[in-house]
Amino acid sequence: MSILVYAEHADGTFKKSAYEAVSYAKAIADITNTWVTAVTIGDISTSELASLGHYGATTVLHVSSEQLNRFINQAYASVVAAAANHANADLVIVSNSFSGKGLAPRIAAKLGAGLADGAVELPVVEGNKLTVKKTAFSGKAFAFTELISDKKVISLNINAFEAQETGDTPQIETFSPPIEERDLATIVEEIVRITDKVSLPEAEIVVSAGRGLKGPENWGMIEELADALGAATACSKPVSDAGWRPHSEHVGQTGITVSPNLYIAIGISGAIQHLAGISASKTIVVINKDPEAPFFKVADYGVVGDAFEVIPKLTAAIKAYKG
Ligand code: FAD
Question: What does the cofactor section's free text say about binding (predicted)?
C-alpha cells in the first residue's frame, strides 16, 4: 500500500494541517511498510516543498499551473486523483479542512475508493482493511468506518494528529497532469481576506463566548484574552444572530466545527447544538456563573464564577506568565 497526501498551503506556506496529514500518512506507512508521496498545487518555493520530507514524505509532486493558482474543487480533485494513480497509491489522505471537505468525496468518486471523513486517530490495519475512528453526526458521536475497497480516502481532522519531524530530504518532482476544460467550469475571480487572524477551524486555541457576556460592548475582554493566548475568537449562535459578532464566528451544529487543543467557553450554557461543533476539542475549559450549566458536564476544567471578574484576572495572569 503506497500513500498519497494532498498538502495544503496558503500563499506558499504549508499549513500546519499539511504537516499533520503527512505525519499521519507516515505513521500508517510505518505500520504497512510502505512510503509516502505528497502532492501540492500552486506557487511554492523549493525549500517549502522540501519541508514535507521532514515529516515523512519520500517524494513531493509539485503541480504548478496558472489555471490552478486558486483553489477549484473539481480541478484539484482531478489533479490529486491523477497524482494517486501516478504514485500507485491505494490510500489518499487529505486534511478535513474547508477545501478538504469538498475534495475528499470527489477524489474518492474519481478513484472508485471508499471514504472515511473526519478521522481522529490512526486506523487499525488488518490486511487490506482499515478501521477508521471518525467524528459523526456533526461531531456529536464517534463512528468506526471499515474501509475494505482496494482504494481508500481518509480526511484527517485538524489538530487530531500531532505533526512529527523525521528529518529526511524528499525527492521533488514536477507533475503536470492534463487539466480538462470541464474541471475549470468554476473560476475563482478574487479572494477577499476578511481577517488576518488564525482561521477558526484550524485554530489550536479558541476563546468562545455566549449570551452571558450581555452585549457586544463587552467583547474587548474576550479579544484581550484571545490575544494573550494567540487564540481565535468564537461565539454561540444567539450572539451572532443578534449581530454582536460576525456569523463567521458562530460555532455549533449550524455553524463552524472546531477541533482545537484548547476550547475556552465563557458564558455559554452548553446546549447540544453548540456542543455538536466543539466535541473534537482536546481540552475544554468552561467559565460560567451557574454551577448547573450543562457545559460543565463535558468540561475538563470548570470555573464557577462571573466572567466579568474571572476573565480580566485570567488575562492578567497569562500576560504575567508570558512576561
Ligand atoms: P444562553 O443559553 O442564554 O446561556 C448563557 C449562559 O451564560 C448561561 O449558562 C448563564 O449561566 C451564563 N452566564 C450569564 N451571565 C454570566 C456571567 N456574568 N458570567 C459567566 N456566565 C454567565 N447554538 C449554538 O451555539 N450553535 C449552533 O450551531 C446552534 N444551532 C442551533 C440549531 C437549532 C436547530 C436550534 C433549535 C438551536 C441552535 N442553537 C445553536 C441554539 C442553542 O440551542 C442555544 O440556544 C444556544 O447555544 C445558547 O447560547 P448561549 O449559551 O450563548 O446563551
Answer: Binds 1 FAD per dimer.
Instruction: Tell me the whole-structure pTM to 2 decimals.
Output: 0.83
pLDDT digits (tens, 9 = 90+) for 13-36: 999 999 999 999 999 999 999 999
Cα–ligand 1 centroid distance for 272 (angstroms):
10
The structural domains of the chain, with segments of one domain joined by +, span: 3-183, 200-322
Q: Give 101-106 contacts, CB < 8 A, sequence gap 24+.
A: 101/155, 102/73, 102/77, 103/6, 103/73, 103/76, 103/77, 104/153, 104/154, 104/155, 106/73, 106/74, 106/77
* Spatial separation of the C-alpha atoms in residues 292 and 298, rounded to whole Å: 12
User: Is the Cβ atom of 139 under 6 angstroms away from ligand 1?
Assistant: no
Whether ipTM > 0.90 holds is yes
C-alpha cell at 167: 528529518
**Range 3-183 classified under CATH 3.40.50.150:** no
Q: pLDDT for 218-251, tens place per residue?
A: 999 999 999 999 999 999 999 999 999 999 999 9
User: Do the two domains 3-183 and 200-322 of this chain adopt the same fold?
Assistant: yes
Q: CA 73, CA 75: separation in Å to the nearest integer?
A: 6
Distance CA 129, CA 319 (A): 49
